[in-house]
Amino acid sequence: MSTAFALSLAMILDAIFGEPKWLWSRLPHPAVLMGRLIGWADTRFNTGDMRKLKGALLVLVLTLCAAMLGLFLRHIPFIDPWIEVLLGAILLAQKSLIQHVKAVADGLERSLFEGRRAVAMIVGRETQELDAPAVSRAAIESAAENFSDGVIAPAFWFLIFGLPGILVYKLVNTADSMIGYRTERHRDFGWAAARLDDLLNLAPARLSALLLFPWGKPLSVWRDILAEAHRHRSPNAGWPEAALSRSLGVALSGPRAYHGELRDYPWVNPTGREAHTRDIHAACTRLWQAWGAVFLCVAILSFA
């Protein structure tokens, strides 16, 4: 079975089943196991001197172990291709992403409180004071960023390196989400995880922007996307965010609060209109269209 064919099957399984609660309420999700390991290492080694070196060694050891595990699993006789398909489906996140984003729209349609509570599940900013447009913006931004690093990036590395590629990527991405912060505790220890995650997402983020680009508009729009991506606080997240904002015609990003501190981030597509609940639904539709384009390309590759 080719890697492309395995990926196409994994994408179908993920799109159909997502992350079934009946399964993951009984078994630990692989990403949860990765998180537990990284959390233990953070507690055990993020102390004393040379924290940057310790963090770099941790990332090196964990990525090597993930790659070796992937190589081992893909060489188990008779069942190896199906392990690749199954783990690929588990480590992709298209359906679960759509479900979490749509939950925000559904919550907003009931009440602002429900919308805030739903969006708090998928963003790190403070949500208690957000109005309905700000909740909608947060959901759309999360959709764009997580489409890139939760769907396109793992599929990209799976297609190139198979099971070892997606395992290494998911481990690094999980490490970045846990220790890759510029806080006093993690500035040094999480430096290597954050930088490696940036590196692994360079190509997928730009590919995501192409997939989310508003192809019915002039190509000159790409210059605006490029400029805003370079101004963004993240070297990668700005690409899909700027592209999706242009597709929907809404303004994204802007000021927000983290841990009581207001951060005055620049607007993405500042001339766009205010985001509303209908734009969350439109974003989900756009993500499925982009997913379909990727699936079509992978399916063609699998029979090439």
TrEMBL record:
What are its GO biological-process terms?
cobalamin biosynthetic process
In terms of InterPro entries, this protein maps to: Cobalamin_biosynth_CobD/CbiB
Q: What is its main location?
A: membrane
Q: Which GO terms describe its molecular function?
A: ABC-type vitamin B12 transporter activity; threonine-phosphate decarboxylase activity
In terms of superkingdom, the source organism counts as Bacteria
Q: Which UniProt keywords apply?
A: Cell membrane, Cobalamin biosynthesis, Membrane, Transmembrane, Transmembrane helix
Membrane-topology annotation of the record: Multi-pass membrane protein
Transmembrane residues, as ranges?
55-73, 151-172
GO terms for cellular component: plasma membrane
Pathway listed: Cofactor biosynthesis; adenosylcobalamin biosynthesis
Compartment(s): Cell membrane
Q: Which HAMAP family match?
A: CobD_CbiB
To which protein family does this belong?
Answer: Belongs to the CobD/CbiB family.
Function, in words? Converts cobyric acid to cobinamide by the addition of aminopropanol on the F carboxylic group.
Protein name in UniProt: Cobalamin biosynthesis protein CobD
**Which species is the source of this protein?**
Celeribacter halophilus
Q: Which gene encodes it?
A: cbiB
